[in-house]
Amino acid sequence: xxxxxxxxxxxxxxxxxxxxxxxxxxxxxxxxxxxxxxxxxxxxxxxxxxxxxxxxxxxxxxxxxxxxxxxxxxxxxxxxxxxxxxxxxxxxxxxxxxxxxxxxxxxxxxxxxxxxxxxxxxxxxxxxxxxxxxxxxxxxxxxxxxxxxxxxxxxxxxxxxxxxxxxxxxxxxxxxxxxxxxxxxxxxxxxxxxxxxxxxxxxxxxxxxxxxxxxxxxxxxxxxxxxxxxxxxxxxxxxxxxxxxxxxxxxxxxxxxxxxxxxxxxxxxxxxxxxxxxxxxxxxxxxxxxxxxxxxxxxxxxxxxxxxxxxxxxxxxxxxxxxxxxxxxxxxxxx
Amino acid sequence: xxxxxxxxxxxxxxxxxxxxxxxxxxxxxxxxxxxxxxxxxxxxxxxxxxxxxxxxxxxxxxxxxxxxxxxxxxxxxxxxxxxxxxxxxxxxxxxxxxxxxxxxxxxxxxxxxxxxxxxxxxxxxxxxxxxxxxxxxxxxxxxxxxxxxxxxxxxxxxxxxxxxxxxxxxxxxxxxxxxxxxxxxxxxxxxxxxxxxxxxxxxxxxxxxxxxxxxxxxxxxxxxxxxxxxxxxxxxxxxxxxxxxxxxxxxxxxxxxxxxxxxxxxxxxxxxxxxxxxxxxxxxxxxxxxxxxxxxxx
Lengths: 335, 298
What we know:
The structure holds two protein chains of two kinds.
Chain A: H1 2-29, H2 34-39, H3 46-56, H4 62-74, H5 88-123, H6 128-141, H7 145-159, H8 182-189, H9 194-229, H10 232-239, H11 244-266, H12 268-282, H13 287-297, H14 300-328, H15 330-333
Helix pairs in contact in A: 1-4, 1-14, 5-6, 5-9, 6-9, 7-9, 7-12, 8-9, 9-11, 9-12, 10-11, 11-14, 12-13, 13-14
Chain B: H1 2-8, H2 15-25, H3 27-44, H4 46-49, H5 87-122, H6 125-140, H7 143-154, H8 158-185, H9 188-195, H10 200-236, H11 248-255, H12 263-291, H13 293-297
Helix pairs in contact in B: 2-12, 3-5, 3-12, 5-6, 5-8, 5-10, 6-8, 7-8, 8-10, 9-10, 10-11, 10-12, 11-12
């Protein structure tokens, strides 16, 4: 077990260095001089230019620059935003709860609907319900989510006026964000209707972000269940006279869950990519919108730092899933 | 023994016919194939099919609703956009861009992916490790984010969007090819080819590659739809094709501010993307059923 854990950790190190190298290279392969970009329209004197070049270390050899960058990253120094002048690290962590809140809600939505749907479809294989559900899942899987978001806005915000179009909470509510999670903060604030407002703002983004994972989970659960339902031990359970409900939920689902859990864990990258689109459309102040805005504002240190943090996050989640999978399923460890 | 093979050989259906036999069993896949065929025809004959030029502006008819709605006109069956351009013509012209994106991205990603995958599969262990680590690094970034950043470096345009998407999709082909090569390399026919004196390039491309193609073809079909979706997403974010190009994602971005006033400018481009992607995914499912020998026999 320890050997397995160590080997996985060892592959993490070169990947981490590689990811750092890519984000390091980003600012240096861009067309144009980053210092000039930082000066903007105003321009700058030659002395100031030389001073800034020295301050950012652009006058040193590449290898030294990379070493400085790598050691800086390991100490949590990702540089400063050109626009807000705040450290990238601080900006990331003040916006991250918004993305986490949205992603967790989207995942709850996707698992809560997708898991039962997949199980029911598998048990009723080939029947009308199964076929309808799998067609719907394929549509969901093929959905351009940015368009789906616009459609939902037209119907639920435009026609029915049920949900707001953007933001996390109505402007009449104001309280300090103690945890950064709007649902928790609105309860803590004790203001009337704050929680309800936060929930209404969450509904459409949750549905939009959760749609593709929902479709993937439903399809995956169905196929995993179908495989398990053909096993001998299920026949044994049937022969013992157990109720179909018990067979499906206890004997079959528990074994079918392993691949499904992996899919859920590995969809973090997809979820973050989806968050870029969802947050941009709903003006959700999270990491995705922050990255897109920074790319448009040419705020390179933010793009560079955000890219690195997101990649490292995806890597850590994948590693965790990998290790957990090895613990649940000992066969994997042997590879 | 030789007699047996001689008498049974003519009875074996051709690979293509066998493929079609299994593909046809999946009705959804056949339906997807029809829709995809239609999409190809529209893309090929766009200039003939489109009633107007995609960028022609009819200033007196801005934001005209579809023909069946009040105020609509059959001169513009699906309505007009805020600049008075015919929606139908723009959608038809847009099919060409999506098709182009799909073909270019899949070609670049498969060619590069297959070659790198073959090299990794045949290379000594250290080179294989280096290649696969690099692929892991690319896969650590969410695909759309990496594509966005690459476009930011290269400059926003449809060509650069296609290059970025191809780079992001490539690692999947490398992994797939390498995995197939690894399992094929152990087999007797490869050893016998080696013994017969086949050189490395022949071993790679003529002996092993044809036997690894099935999963790659399936992946190619599926990434055709991913490419269309991602290109539309980049266009939607303003990082893909630039206006006035009638690319479906770019059209959606232009229409965004009118969503509460004119539903049709937002609805049609999305419907076009969804139908195309859905058809390709249906087809991809059928391809997998037909090409995957394990599923076939069960």
